[in-house]
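Pilot study result, target chain (445 residues):
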Amino acid sequence: MDLLHELDVIVGKIGAFAWGPPMLILLVGTGFWLTFALRGLQFRKLGHALYLALIKRKEATDQPGDITHYQALMTALSATVGTGNIAGVATAIAAGGPGALFWMWITGLVGMATKYSEAVLAVKYRVVDENGEMSGGPMYYISRGLNMPWLGAIFAIFAACAAFGIGNMVQSNSVADAMHATYHIPQWATGLFLMGCTAAVVLGGIKKIGQFTGFFVPFMILFYILGSCYIIITHITAVPAALLLIVKQAFNPTAAVGGFAGATVMMAIRMGVARGVFSNESGLGSAPIAAAAAQTRSPITQALVSMTQTFIDTIIVCTMTGLVLILTGTWSNGATGAALSTMAYASGMPGGAHVVTIGIALFAYSTILGWCYYGEKSIEYLFGIKSVLPYRIIFILFIGVGAISKLSLVWNISDTLNGLMAIPNLIGLLFLTPVIIQETKKYFQ
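Predicted structure:
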């Protein structure tokens, strides 16, 4: 036990460095650089991007790829919209005050340019594997675009391992704990149920994942948004004051109130940026793996669709959670994480605690599906197509392990690997910026 504790402490320190100020500055700084290089494309073309993603939804059937634009977006959203949108937002506001939500918005807005750029490169440098399916992502655009296969392999190793933590055991554990606390369902039973549900989808490959997430993800997001909207509408007269508080506290220290100890502007920025990046994953390199499977001949059409992922995740879903916390006044009661969100929704509407519990279950399950695909594509890059099925089976088994485990060490390891994924990906984005600009100009001209 002492050895495990020491290992936990060491990994925690590495994780603190991996998600420390230099990394957050690099992640957000890359977003600002790409926003400048692309002349604010995410603002100029947002309407067109939303049209492609949600109304047009798919290209002609003769386009190369495995799944539609819409299914690629929903697969990426399945992995991105997770417990961070519920517990992560609560943690940010509990530590940094209401102003943290403003800095989450800034992170999301510049992160849209990053997500766009990742998808451009993912589609441009994708390959067809032995099964005739598309394979792409940072490992491919680093290897083929920068001619640095060793750096692509480093990314793939980090991603394949992180999938077992942040995309698997941590998620099943969150669901098992939430279901046990609210409905007294044994953790092992939740684990078995999640294993069965995951196997039914992921063993069918990306086409089955795309079809399922295309139906499931809009339903789960709509469920959570409707619950949030009920509370926001019933407190509608307080919304202007809440928005003003968010903007004001982003640039001014937040005084101690109730159970809230107070926060500096720097704490608001740090928590907002950290949780914003953690929630929308812009720059980490995970989402472009799904983007590479889209049916399209042009990297730009999928890139426009992909950037709406960050908009939906951060600007819409995270904002819903943040407004509920502030409008109900629970943000300052001293609680944090999922417990704080549960208190807020329970005080804001009848049965509100069920919205959070069911939301966590749906969001976590969808994250498992998305990250299984990310992990298997990373393993395929490293060891070939024959490694995919064994990886899927092992991944499914670890869902059950996560449901009944104590996960402090697993969380720290996966959190660290998740952060380290960003380093090779950001190198690829920065050095391949001329390619991104060239492809963008060619499409819009």
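One observation from the pilot: The radius of gyration is 21 Å. A full batch analysis is planned for the follow-on phase.
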